[in-house]
Amino acid sequence: MEEKMSGYAADALDYKGFPADKSRTGGWVAAALILGIEICERLSTMGIAVNLVTYLVGTMHLPSSTSANIVTDFAGTSFLLCLLGGFLADSFLGRYKTIAIFASIQTLGIIALAISVKLPQLRPPHCDITVANNNCKQANDFQTGFLYLALYIIALGIGGLKSSVSGFGTDQFDEKDDKEKAQMAYFFNRFFFFISTGTLMAVTVLVYIQDKVDRSWAYGICSISMFIAILVFFSGTKRYRYKKSLGSPIVQIFQVIVAAVRKRKMPLPFDVALLYENYPEASRIGHTDQFRFLDKAAIVAEEDYAKNAPAGSVPNPWNLCSVTRVEEVKMMVKLLPIWATTIMFWTAYAQMLTFSVEQASTMDRSIGKFQIPAGSLTAFFVLAILITLAVNDRLIMPIWKKWKGPPGFTNLQRIAIGLVLSTLGMAAAALTERKRLSVAKEMRTMSTGPLPISVYLLIPQFFLVGSGEAFIYTGQLDFFITQSPKGMKTMSTGLFLSTLSLGFFVSSFLVSIVRRFTGSKDGQGWLADNIDYGRLDCFYGLLSVLSVINFVAYLVCARWYKPRKPTKPSNGSSAEDRC
After folding, report:
1. What is the pTM of this model?
2. Kind and range of the H or E element at 393?
3. Choosing a second label site near 259 at 20 to 30 A (CA), which of 55, 109, 517, 557?
4. Which GO terms describe its molecular function (predicted)?
């Protein structure tokens, strides 16, 4: 039972707008209600994404490469819209309203998707795509249009929901209370556990229902679970702690850039103490010499203050920004090289949701009389993550700490390990696909059906990329949160999620480029309409080479990046002291 705690939570309000009483608000009870909506979101999202490609190819009769791009564009848009959701939460709605609104939008999208797969009018006539020259009729514009509408309503809901769930969960704990601060650390562990649990249920139970019962039933379960989660979320309205919106960091970044551009012709003062500063000394960030062009945003000009302005008035931030605000933007700019070189991992990851699932659909998946659904192979992702985290925490880290001392792997080292594992995963995928194609070539003139090659040959690529995700996800999240300014934590989380988005979009771009330069009029090439007639192994090989090049670029960027050390503010008087 949660202990009663006296006092009020720092910087937090209750649902009436009064200071939040610790004994009546927040804590594990409130956090658990928020985690409930997260597990249902993950159940729905992964239940749709991991098995969507089989529906697009097998039911909608779309080409393999087109189907892969639809899945990656859907996933990429979902994560990209996290930036929109974060902006709305920070600037207008607050996290509570953002979660409520976008969870409802996602539920409506899932209902529309269930209707799309249920009604015969919204899909082409059935035919056997495994038969050569089958002349299967592809879905028409109206059918694909309705499917796209449903998917992108879901993507909008995911973007708004994911941007605020973790942040609203941490709002339920007071960082200035030692006991609650310790509970917050456990919240992150349980948050990741809930994500993994939702994913495991999606790739096993939901995928089985989609393939063996009815796809519309599976999507119906998703929509019902989301509706129940929303009701549970609303039940905690009086229990939650709320934080005031402080404005969007994106606006603050643009203010610094605009102010610097406006004063681009003005010379920088020799003494940095002459630059404008209005932050309290205890919260100031010391000046650095990197990206000195941005320092021009802090140059004080006569026109920055109105002639009749009252004493102590704050200048227009689009004309003049403080040194601390400029340094915050510099800190975000320094993150960009690491940000750019982690996108490639998620491009490799995207293949596990698309082409790898399609590979599995052509292979022998039987265990006795039971047929494993192709999409359920992604369960090895979850197992790889859980095993990797357990081995890392219980075996690798203790040995590492004894050898090198605490704190173990740094966030940049974890990212590097993840990039290496994904590169090995793509190499393993290329070798496995070469073996699968050799069997497919021998079977072309024989009866149709699954190829006489075990689906378990795909386990190495799933396991390697999954293990890589365990390292890179935690490494990226730690890096972007700890190395970003205090006032831009939400922004940095969105920056992290944008790497996932761009990874999926890069995958779609590569698929389109490869199909254009290696394809032919009869739908063949590396990425043929039917993968048994293509060279998917060459595409995986290309990704392996690009991953190696990206890893070298990452090492250069990681060596260039220097973690910011605390610096004492200058003892000299600032421009603010004289104004």
Report:
1. 0.76
2. none
3. 557
4. transmembrane transporter activity
